[in-house]
């Protein structure tokens, strides 16, 4: 049961840092969004000035372009961000938006004129470049947020030294590849379904995580059998399942608040925290048994000795 209790404690420790990935992702989102919006406005302004020159009319003021852009954003259906994102990545959709904007601004325009068509195409290509920059910043925010959160949570739970972290990261990667290859071979050899592959990987991951944790924190401090046994393996898997379930429950609660954008940001943050906690869960338990409990026992013995000495002095 201590494994299960420690799993919940590890999750609580991890959730303390929920605003770390949230803040980093939001920061990179805002930086990327600022670059994208300014780039789009600049591209549209260049297109409008070119069209005005072709039609020999006065160009639309920058303020009017901004107002049109804000109105366009306000008219979008933000309840389905997935569809919005898909639309923005559709060349024809973006081109039609620009054409509609130009026809509203210059009713006499003929978009089939080669020069005007070229201006529209150049603007579309420029917009897509800025969209890619925005996506890159968001992905970078997710990656940076994960590794910063990983560093903080793992330092809180397992206090692993940096050289051990690098060494066992390499070992983990090699073991994971080996386990996946072996499990896949066994499944196909025996003709079992994919669910057995998942079960074997989870079992192997739990066993190896406990063994690795014992190698790092428990050697010469606690017997391997105290860490490495069927009971601990079962409760570790159960603890991991509960951690995932609680993380999913938090995401659902945010979703029920009907704030889609907030839900997306919080979901990314929760997934990162849960992923890190799962990765450190077994080692956190081993460290608790091999280091924290040993330290507590030492303190108790010291207090007992001091108490006996005080009695003798009296």
Summarize the structure.
The chain has 314 residues and is mostly helical. The protein is built from 11 helices and no strands.
Task: Explain what this protein looks like in three dimensions.
The chain has 314 residues and is mainly alpha-helical. The chain has one domain (2-307). It is 86% helix and 0% strand. It is built from 11 helices and no strands. Helix 8 runs parallel beside helix 11 (260-313) and helix 10 (230-256) packs across helix 11 (260-313). The longest helix has 54 residues, at 260-313. The protein is elongated. The mean pLDDT is 81.
First and last CA, distance: 43 Å
Number of beta-strand segments = 0
Question: Which percent band covers the strand fraction?
Answer: under 5%
* Class based on secondary structure composition and strand pairing: mainly alpha
Secondary-structure element pattern, one letter each: HHHHHHHHHHH
Tally of discrete structural domains: 1
Sheet with most strands: none
Helix content: over 70%
Could you tell me the mean pLDDT?
A: 81
Question: How does the overall form come out from the CA principal axes?
Answer: elongated
Spans where pLDDT lies below 50 across 5 or more residues: none
- The total of helices stands at 11
The Cα radius of gyration reads 29 Å
Quaternary organization: single chain
């Amino acid at each position: 049961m201590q494994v299960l209790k420690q799993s919940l404690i590890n999750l609580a420790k991890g959730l303390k840092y929920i605003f770390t990935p949230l803040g980093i992702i939001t920061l990179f989102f805002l930086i990327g969004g600022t670059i994208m919006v300014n780039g789009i406005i600049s591209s549209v302004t260049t297109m409008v000035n070119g069209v005005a020159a072709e039609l020999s009319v006065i160009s639309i003021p920058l303020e009017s372009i901004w107002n049109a852009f804000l109105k366009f954003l306000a008219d979008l259906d933000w309840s389905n961000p997935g569809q919005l994102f898909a639309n923005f990545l559709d060349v024809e959709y973006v081109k039609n938006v620009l054409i509609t904007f130009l026809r509203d601004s210059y009713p006499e325009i003929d978009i089939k004129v080669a020069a005007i068509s070229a201006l529209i195409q150049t603007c579309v290509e420029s917009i897509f470049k800025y969209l890619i920059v925005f996506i890159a910043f968001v992905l970078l925010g997710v990656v940076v947020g994960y590794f910063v959160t990983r560093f903080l949570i793992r330092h809180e739970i397992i206090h692993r030294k940096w050289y051990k972290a690098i060494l066992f990261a390499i070992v983990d990667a090699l073991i994971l590849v080996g386990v996946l290859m072996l499990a896949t071979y066994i499944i196909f050899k025996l003709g079992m379904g994919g669910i057995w592959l998942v079960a074997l990987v989870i079992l192997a991951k739990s066993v190896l995580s406990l063994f690795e944790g014992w190698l790092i924190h428990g050697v010469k401090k606690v017997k391997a059998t105290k860490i490495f046994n069927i009971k601990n393996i079962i409760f570790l898997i159960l603890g991991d399942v509960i951690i995932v379930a609680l993380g999913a429950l938090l995401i659902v609660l945010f979703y029920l608040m009907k704030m889609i954008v907030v839900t997306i940001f919080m979901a990314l943050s929760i997934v990162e925290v849960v992923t890190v906690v799962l990765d450190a869960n077994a080692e956190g338990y081993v460290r608790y048994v091999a280091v924290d409990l040993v330290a507590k026992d030492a303190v108790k013995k010291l207090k007992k000795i001091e108490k006996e000495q005080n009695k003798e002095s009296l």
